[in-house]
């Protein structure tokens, strides 16, 4: 079936497209180049968008396809041809701050996805945000669609400060390193930060990292993001990312390449989160837990109160096939320096940490999974930001929120020109 072209062949086709686009740009057969691009886009969409059992139109314009669990993009991967889907993890870590144990008045109402207003996916299917032609055309090339443009993982340990500012990505994060980690958890306040330019984004996530910050970095990432380039709007969306070679040839957002195996029929990767927190008003947050199954070695992800979404098979990774060496939590924006000034793209709520609850964005109850598969408060947590006058981070600790931090900022302001 054409929809099941293997990864290898797909890449070859895409590479030839890139080559031809450059020849068209150089004044070559531009008509042929356009036709060829149309064909490549169509083929790419056919690879990504599997035949649905049912489709749901979300109020934000997304189409959510309910695809049979065994027809999802993961199974285009040659290594997954004979894979038996794990329908549940063999092990689930437990810790201090399980939401059903939190009795505080600040307990958040349950948070969902916008498309739920118009329907649900049946059993044995998974909801997949349908990729449109426009989504692909916004990318610089078919090959780059769904992939990060730059290496952007913050490296707070870098000895070369110049490198930190190199990519135009800015961060305000908390982190731990120096041990073996088997997972991480956080409750993340959800906002809709403003981005100044369509090619900028603002996100809040956790990073599970293995290897050095060289060419071999392994990373599993999950959180929320506003990314006009990726989604065509300014909505706040649930996302994941993975790479096993520092964002070069492997990995992607969400289900936009074969890798993550989803088992859950309620939550769609890349779909809008609803509702969102208001400044000085109602606050909403999401729970994210990523952990390594000690028996099968797969990395599982859970969202909210017990939505086990699925897993990244262990074989996708090198270092993370064993354990993570660093965990980071926090915000990231792209600063494209429009008009030679710092961007006004916001991080978190767009307000500095000093403003505190209901005004600044937070991560609370941040935990790591240790070698005994227990969730614990991280020891020796550090904080890092490139320019605290633009975006800042402040750690704290108390009984109810455990380890937490407020982070974010407005970007351009009188102290951040
Ligand atoms: C899948 O199973 C078939 C038939 O048993 C076998 O020939 C093939 O090598 C297997 N593929 C992988 C990737 O394990
Ligand atoms: C997204 O936000 C930018 C400015 O922040 C605005 O110019 C643009 O119209 C918005 N796009 C949509 C689809 O709402
Ligand atoms: C990044 O660049 C800004 C502006 O040039 C500078 O103020 C800041 O100190 C740099 N940060 C680091 C960590 O080098």
Number of helices: 5
Bound molecules: 2-acetamido-2-deoxy-beta-D-glucopyranose
Please summarize the sheet with the most strands: 9 strands, antiparallel
- Run of helices and strands: HHEEEEHHEEEEHEEEEEEEEEEEEE
Name the shape in a single word.
Answer: globular
Protein name: Neprosin PEP catalytic domain-containing protein
InterPro entries: Glutamic_endopeptidase, Neprosin, Neprosin_propep
Keywords: Signal
Organism: Musa acuminata subsp. malaccensis
Summarize the SSE layout with pairings.
Blueprint: H1 7-25, H2 30-48, E1 54-57, E2 63-68, E3 112-113, E4 125-129, H3 133-138, H4 161-164, E5 169-181, E6 183-189, E7 202-210, E8 218-226, H5 228-231, E9 237-243, E10 252-253, E11 261-262, E12 273-274, E13 285-292, E14 299-303, E15 307-312, E16 324-334, E17 361-369, E18 375-376, E19 382-385, E20 392-398, E21 402-408
Antiparallel strand pairs: 1-2, 2-4, 3-12, 5-16, 5-19, 6-13, 6-17, 7-8, 7-16, 8-9, 9-10, 11-15, 13-14, 14-15, 17-18, 17-21, 20-21
Helix pairs in contact: 1-2
Bound molecules: 2-acetamido-2-deoxy-beta-D-glucopyranose (3 copies).
Signal peptide: 1-26
Organism: Musa acuminata subsp. malaccensis
Domain Neprosin PEP catalytic: 163-417
